[in-house]
């Protein structure tokens, strides 16, 4: 089972807390949680080939427009396809643009973490 360690860090503009799981530093507890869920699914035989921080260069007409770094890329054995997955607590305009560019340039639909429900 993954071991979680939450690190206190200087002010993050979105309030994220860096978290270490299995010796890997994640930008937030949400991202660490998603990693733990993927590892659990991997042990259950549902996913394989989990990769972290996969870089996609978005080039149009031979010009590098930007880079998109996916939090996770993995093979979903139940769906029979590769998934590009991003953990987002806040959807920024830049992320929305990169998501559209990934679809336009690579034909890839980025799967985004469902927005957490607010506690009452």
Order of helices and strands: EEEHEEEHE
Structural class: alpha+beta
How many β-strand stretches? 7
Query: Ranges with pLDDT <50 over ≥5 residues?
Result: none
Strand residues, percent: 35-45%
Q: What is the average of the pLDDT values? A: 87
The spatial strand order of the largest sheet comes to: 4-5-6-7
How many helices does DSSP assign?
A: 2
Radius of gyration: 15 Å
What share of residues is helical? 10-25%
Largest sheet report: 4 strands, mixed
How many structural domains does the protein architecture include? 1
Shape: globular
C-alpha termini separation: 30 Å
Protein architecture, described:
The chain has 120 residues and is an alpha+beta fold. The protein has one domain. It contains 2 helices and 7 strands; from the N terminus they run βββαβββαβ. The strands form 2 sheets. A 4-stranded mixed sheet has the order 4-5-6-7. It has a 3-stranded antiparallel sheet with strand order 1-2-3, covered by helices on one side. A hairpin with a 2-residue loop joins β2 and β3. The mean pLDDT is 87.
């Amino acid at each position: 089972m993954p071991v979680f360690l939450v690190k206190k860090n200087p002010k993050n503009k979105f309030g994220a807390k860096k978290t270490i799981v299995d010796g890997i530093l994640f930008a937030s507890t949400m991202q660490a949680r998603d990693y733990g869920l993927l590892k659990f699914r991997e042990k259950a035989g549902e996913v394989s080939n989990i990769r972290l921080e996969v870089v996609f260069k978005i080039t149009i007409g031979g010009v590098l427009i930007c880079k998109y770094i996916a939090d996770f890329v993995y093979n979903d054995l139940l769906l029979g396809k590769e998934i590009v997955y991003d953990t987002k607590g806040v959807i920024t305009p830049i992320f929305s643009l990169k998501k559209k560019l990934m679809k336009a340039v690579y034909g890839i639909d980025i799967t985004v973490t469902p927005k957490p429900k607010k506690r009452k």
